[in-house]
Amino acid sequence: MLFNFHLSTMPLAIEPCKNTDIDRAFYIISDTFKHTQPYFDAVFPNHNTPTGHAQGGDRLLELKHIDPTVRFIKAVDTTTGQINSQANLVNFGESVCR
Question: Which end of the chain, N or C, is surrounded by fewer C-beta atoms within 10 Å?
């Protein structure tokens, strides 16, 4: 667990995503963007359909395994165990941050 804290209504834990969490993580991304971001629609066509959702989840899982600069993080309600949020963190290294 990376962090564990309690908000007034929901205790949360911030943890790395497991492989089994990636489908839920993709659902959260898709539900958040809906069709308001043309880039996301172009990269993940039909992401709001069952087929598009499955393809998007597979692509994120592949990215998790092949790109060492990407980290998938989740916020979990420790009472219910439900993933309520997620983030994709990318480390571009020192050369980008200068």
Answer: C
Q: Report the residue count for the chain.
A: 98
pLDDT in tens, the chain (98 residues): 555 555 556 788 999 999 999 999 999 999 998 889 898 899 898 999 999 999 999 999 999 999 989 999 999 998 899 999 999 888 877 655 54
The two three-digit tokens of residue 75, written as one number: 């916020």
What distance, in Å, lies between the first and last C-alpha atoms of the chain? 30
**H helices present in 44-93, as ranges:** 50-66
CB burial of 68-77 (b: ≥16 within 10 Å; e: otherwise) equals: eeeebbbbbb
Domain positions in the chain are 3-97
